Amino acid sequence: MPDQYRQYEGSSDPQIFFNKVLTYHTNLQELITNLKNPFHFETAMTKNMIVAIFGSNQIERVGLGLDETIKICEQIFEGESVDAEVSEGSEEYEKALVYLIAKLKKGKGEENHKPSKELIIQSRREVIQHARVLQYITNALVIKDQLMTEDLIKETHRILTKGIDHVSGTPSTI
């Protein structure tokens, strides 16, 4: 398996991760079945989407810590504009820096990357774009009841990879 696809702390058994996804899916199905209050459904959907974004980023060894991921995702899901660019010394910058330093110390970061402003922006971009793409595809498939088409998949991929350089170092062309 390529280096960019490493799992978050714990077991490397894919069955364990699959079972977690099944648990989330089952919980979501039960919630929908017993839906009495739409707010509960929206809250559960938001929580599960954030967990999926955080998990996906951790598997790929990118993104931010859980608290920052939650904060950014909630802002995006509430319709707020979130920028990947942050000022050095800002609260967002400092939290990302602390997380990335800890990650490097634990050996979970790429050794050739130092926690620079560029890495912080890249980490924020990973979270932001995951949230935007999940919001986009959920809206298309659930709200608008669109079919899964090649164009929908291409647009989803474009949103996800915009400004993200390829692992090989090839700069993003989107």
Helices and strands in order:
Elements: H1 14-33, H2 38-59, H3 66-77, H4 91-105, H5 117-143, H6 150-161
Give an overview of the whole structure:
This protein is mainly α. The chain is built from six helices and no strands. The protein is globular. Residues 1-8 have low confidence and may be disordered.
Brief sketch in words of this structure:
This protein has 174 residues and is an all-alpha fold.
Features:
174 residues; 6 helices; single chain; mainly alpha
Question: What integer value in Å does the Rg equal?
Answer: 17 Å
Number of distinct helices: 6
Helix percent reads: 55-70%
Please give the number of β-strands.
Answer: 0
Major sheet size, sense and barrel closure: none
- Compressed to H and E, one letter per element, the order equals HHHHHH
Which class of secondary structure composition applies to the elements?
mainly alpha
Average pLDDT figure = 79
Ends distance: 26 Å
The gross shape turns out to be: globular
* Range of strand content: under 5%
Q: Which residues sit in consecutive blocks of at least 5 with pLDDT less than 50?
A: 1-8
